[in-house]
Amino acid sequence: MLSATGRELLGRLAGADVSPDRVLALAQSLRQEYPAELVAAALTQQALRVAATAKFSRADQMLFTRSGLEQASSEQTARHAAGRFAGALIVADLCCGIGGNLTALADARPGGVTIGVDSDPASLGFARHNAAVLAPGARLGFACADVRTVRLNRVDAVFVDPARRDAKGRLPTGRYLPALQWCLDLTATVPRVGIKAAPGLRKELVPPGWEIEFVAVGRELKEAMLWSPDLARTQTTATVLPAGDTLTCADPAARSTAPAPAPPGEYLFDPNPAVTRAGLVTKLAGLLGAWQIDPMIAFLSANEPKFTPFARTLRVIESAPWHEKRFGARLRDLGIGTADIRRRGLAGDVAQIHRRLGLRGPGAAVIVLTRVSDRPWGLICVPVTPDGPAAPDAQAQGRPGLETDQG
Ligand SMILES: C[S@@+](CC[C@H](N)C(=O)[O-])C[C@H]1O[C@@H](n2cnc3c(N)ncnc32)[C@H](O)[C@@H]1O
To answer: What is the tens place of the pLDDT at every residue in 114-163?
Structure first.
């Protein structure tokens, strides 16, 4: 793909429909002019570019391997992480893959030097191409090597995004290549280290003095960033992109200023998953002047509407101990035909409950199945924004019966 003919062929495929029912005919005609292998690679590349638009605004100019794209940081999360390296002159991106983070690191530091290292030659070649396209003029270096063998003595800071899969597929949860401990130990050579880890990372693995930052894009939890003491700003952070709002806590064990837990009032707040994972629900409660509906449940409540980037605001229409038949009847009375069911702290098959509720009507609602003072509790709610009622959750529209259980 990096050859002149490869580029020419890719140029011809720009915007082409490479969906399964079109691709055979297209391949046949292109094989009249180009070698079959090149045609197959270019068609794959075009399909990857289409898929990559979910992560990159200029995907149509980039090159991908399939697993490189799957593992790449999106432009939004990469740009956010790169912000921490603003003052570093020479940054090494260890395990740079196809360069999602590398290009953001180079772009964020005009005049800085960014060095990409990866053991996979195809990924590295594409990282070089992608960085040249997306961060033109950046000072870049590349090394195809096992990161554990590279010397880092002239480097000011390191970003490392260890793989969560090997040649055979996904690694067991919590395993990384290279190992997380190796990444943490990088501070012995370079004090400024940022590690991208899975959002499910066990917090007890984070050494004292390091910051753990949970990053969500909208309400989707994407990653946990670990910042070494020289890059840390606090102990725990929840960040919500694209705006980059951050909720921080220097001492998660500190006493909360939130009111004591109590049953739900007129509004319910559904914290962003980054807040929940960061253990900052009581901190958010204190900021909102809201209370937890149960000490073990990550739903907050208040009698006035409040709006924050860290939670979704829901107006409560019905709040009562959960009784499936009574809730079904009430939902039918309200004409609720579309429901986004949120289950938290209660067992039960949401798809079956959804079916048994027998919903019909033009309305949409969020149904919350949870626990209050250790009793199964149900709420019928509608999302609200500062401007009035919110559009129903896009996810719920096409997929009623959505289930979450975030503790
Ligand atoms: C999660 S991906 C990196 C994605 C990258 N940050 C991006 O945004 O495009 C992990 C990469 O680590 C590389 N890798 C794993 N173990 C390695 C090692 N010991 N040395 C060098 N690279 C390694 C893999 O080849 C893979 O490209």
So the answer is: 999 999 999 999 999 999 999 999 999 999 999 999 999 899 999 999 99
Best probe residue, ligand 1, of 65, 93, 96, 105 (max atoms within 8 Å of C-beta): 96
CB contact at 8 A, 73 and 98: no
Q: How far apart are CA 100 and CA 108, in angstroms?
A: 13
Entry pTM: 0.91
Q: Which residues contact 202 (CB under 8 A, 6 or more apart)?
A: 174
Please give the distance, rounded to the nearest whole angstrom, from the Cα atom of residue 85 to the centre of ligand 1. 19
Residue 295 gets which letter from DSSP? T
Alpha-carbon 284 to chain mean position: 20
- Domains of the chain (ranges; CATH) run 4-52 (no CATH), 69-248 (3.40.50.150), 267-398 (3.30.2130)
- Integer CA distances (angstroms), 375 to 276, 290, 370, 371, in order: 22, 21, 8, 5
Ligand 1 centroid to Cα of residue 43, in Å, is 24
Cβ of 148 below 6 Å from ligand 1: yes
Which protein residue's CA is at the shortest distance from atom 13 of ligand 1? 95
Left if phi > 0, otherwise alpha if psi is -120 to 50, otherwise beta: which for 401? Answer: left
d(CA 116, CA 316): 51
pLDDT digits (tens, 9 = 90+) for 343-379: 998 888 888 999 999 899 999 999 999 999 889 999 9
Q: Tell me the pairing of strands 388-389 and 375-385.
A: antiparallel
Output the CA 162–ligand 1 centroid distance in Å. 6
Provide the pLDDT confidence category of residue 257 given band limits of 50, 70 and 90.
confident
Is 60 exceeded by the pLDDT of residue 401? Answer: no
